[in-house]
Input
Amino acid sequence: MRGPLAQGVTLGKTVVDGVEWRVSPGLVPYPQAVAAMEERVAAIRAGTASELVWLLEHPPLYTAGTSADPAELLDPHRFPVFKTGRGGRFTYHGPGQRVAYVMLDLARRGIDLKGFVWRLEEWVIRTLAQLGIAAKRCPGRIGVWVDMPRGPEAKIAAIGVRVRRWVSYHGLALNVAPDLDHFSGIVPCGLPEYPVTSLEALGQPIPLAQVDAALAATFPEVFEHRTAEI
Output
């Protein structure tokens, strides 16, 4: 096999119910990750590779989704900025953030785009529940949110997806223990009135390995079975 995934960027490969799971050590460069996803999406569509859930971290960077407003990039020289084909606006990625790239054959699973986004949110909500944290959706705002003692609710996970010939890629970013000051260089997801938070900031310094175990445990509940969408 040739291409980015064959060049040693990932370790920790397992296969669960036909879906490959990979956990990459270290910090994966963003362009390399996008190239690897595009290669895998094409292979899934061609029937030459299985579906993939890829868990990783990136070095500090900003990404601009298809709806990004240049005015919301407040500090364009702080970190590298990458234009990306996923939906949404500006987001931050960096160490301490668990990124989950989800490459699934939505046509085979009978899931439309709205249902896929709903399931990504549900996956995070159930994962956080396993870790003892109550999280929720907020009408009109994609992502996963937690109530704060004072002020508005805060965003703990961002969702940004792309679908090519009904195979999904990109996915979600869950704030485990990133440097929250790094978000100050953008207007996260175009919502200046809402802060971002993390498990660590909520007083829950949970190791990434434990987060990964909860993600793996809750994934089948959401993606392998019929789930009532609200």
